[in-house]
Amino acid sequence: MKGYTASSDGKVYLYGKRVGTVQVPLRLIMSVLGDGANGIAFGAWHEALARDEVIKVYPPRVDLGEGPDEFGELRDKAMAEASKAAALSHPAIATVYEFNVLMENGVPADSTGWPYVVQQHRRGEPLGVVLSRMTGDAHGRRYIVRQIFDALAYAERRGCLHGDLHMNNVLVRLGSAQLSRKSPSSTSVRAR
Length: 192
Description:
Strand content: 25-35%
CATH class of the largest domain: Alpha Beta
Radius of gyration: 18 Å
Structural class: alpha+beta
Distance between the termini: 16 Å
CATH architecture of the largest domain: 2-Layer Sandwich
Order of helices and strands: EEEEEEHEEEEEHHEE
Number of strands: 13
Number of helices: 3
Shape: globular
Helix content: 10-25%
CATH topology of the largest domain: Phosphorylase Kinase, domain 1
Largest sheet: 5 strands, antiparallel
CATH superfamily of the largest domain: Phosphorylase Kinase, domain 1
Number of domains: 2
């Protein structure tokens, strides 16, 4: 997100000034996975369930002039997106586990708290990286693209649009055994 940076311990900075810390109950922030148009993604470890997760935090878009008055609207938009995504059940789409508002010192943040979504952590490489290595494999490339279209069509039929789809938001895992036996290659496609 424009102006935001984050550290692997969950600290979030806006143009170099610390503006918050990501603290989610039972989770340890392990890394910054990336940022995009709508938020910052952190890799996290759920201590009680012993699993990797992704926490997507939606800070206000300061480049668009969003301030405290827009936090309620931001939270409502994030919650609507999270509830649509949580209703999806597709092998190529990460499962949404939770939606909430960031805590400050262990207490739910006030009306200016940033919304966040916790979802399944899918491992893989960005689509662009995988496709660049498959220059001579038109059949494999078509298969990957078909898997992506299948997942997108499934989500769209249920009223859920990605909104920020690009080569870095699609993960591909080569050598996966999770595909049907009819697949021409052993590739699993995961959308972030």
